[in-house]
Amino acid sequence: MLSEAFLAEHRRLTRRFFLRAGVAGSALLVTSLGRGTAAEKPVRHEKQGAWADPYFTSAESFRDVSRGKPLPHTLSEEKKREVGLTRETWKLEVISDPEHPARLGKPMTAADNTALDFAGLLEIGQQHAVRFAKVMTCLNLGCPLGMGVWEGVPLREVVWRTQPRENLRRVFYYGYHNDDPAQMFRSSLPIGRVLEDPFDLPPVILCYKLNGEWLNSERGGPVRVVVPEAYGFKSIKWLTHVVLTNLAAANDTYAEQNNDVDSPLKTFAATLNVPAEVAAGQAIAVSGYAQVGISGLSKVQVCLTLDADAAPAGDPYFTKGAWKDAEILGPPPHWGSVPEGKVPAGTLGFDASGVPKGWPMRLTNAHWAAVLEGVPVGDYTLRCRSVDEKGIAQPLPRPFKKSGHAAIESVPIKVR
After folding, report:
1. CATH number of the 59-256 domain
2. Matching SUPFAM superfamilies, A to Z (predicted)?
């Protein structure tokens, strides 16, 4: 279940919309947020962690899908200091791949005492630090883990300090894994993505702050990778090694588990509040959120169909359905778990006063709401979908499993 903090935020945003739509007297304004009788409570899928705090999620409220036995963030403080999982003891080696070597002028190694420490990373950050908003999402889950403002140093600034010369095609990286090779979890990127930021994307960063605070151990601190357009498996926690390689292909752990490791965030819509049962003639207030992926978001649409009607033959994505545009709600009145509720100055995508330069913002979430009126008695299914900036409707352009959630959600509604 979603936290009361998030439901309160969703209530504030959607209430204005439903007032304008003339359904202020509807019990749905209260009961659709989970306060009614059993018949009035919403039908919704598990979305714990979508926004445990208003818009930006506090570090403590992120949903956690970390790997490791034991989980590195559960280690004692003494053990964390011993293995370099504190800001005072953290070191990062940036080396050439011994099996597929890239030619480097100055690798950073622990053996010769040139590994990058936390003070050195912050020194680079004095000139090069960036921050941006990003939703963190697991490749094979249909709900976000949380969203925040991530801050750190572009990975390229550290790569350049190794003086790469030739035979550098990919970067792979991994974090602390209990000194157990079988537990290593690694990801990789083409060197071009590390050195450049295509399509106005933020850079790949070595992240040390979340929402203006030092990155805590549970969120991958003291330092993790954050890849703006990617799913969570690319943003390795407890970073210890960056390996520069002439390997031509991805060697991600997730690739070995039959996942598409090059698929960026998808755009999709999902419900949060849908009444299970309403009276005939009553306006039906529905609302939800959309993940704004790499292809942007132009619309959220809803479609209500009688269960007795035959499913459209040869149309698995309901492209011929009677889709109705919902309203994508504007930015929240406050941002939640950032200092003083204000977006930090200099955050990419926001102006000097902390207002988004465009809305909805790519790589984040947005709320939506709609009102359905004049619905006759019957058993119905509500579906929702996103439409991206190219006019392509969910689940396209990438409907496949193992490359990020995109399936069209369906929720039952009874009109009595």
Report:
1. 3.90.420.10
2. Oxidoreductase molybdopterin-binding domain
CB count, 10 Å around CB of 25? 9
Predicted model pTM: 0.89
Largest CA distance in the chain: 76
Rounded CA separation 243/238 (Å): 15
Separation between Cα atoms, residue 92 and residue 131, nearest integer Å: 21
Backbone angles phi, psi at 210, to 5 degrees: -130, 125
Q: Are 76 and 118 in contact (CB under 8 A)?
A: no
137 membership: H or E segment, kind and range: strand 130-137
Residue 39 and residue 278: Cα distance in Å, rounded? 9
Domain over 4-47+266-415 is classified CATH 2.40.110.10: no
pLDDT tens by residue, 142-176: 888 999 999 999 999 999 999 999 999 999 999 99
Name the residue ranges covered by the structural domains of the chain. 4-47+266-415, 59-256
Is the pLDDT at 277 greater than 60, yes or no? yes
Arithmetic mean of pLDDT over the chain? 89
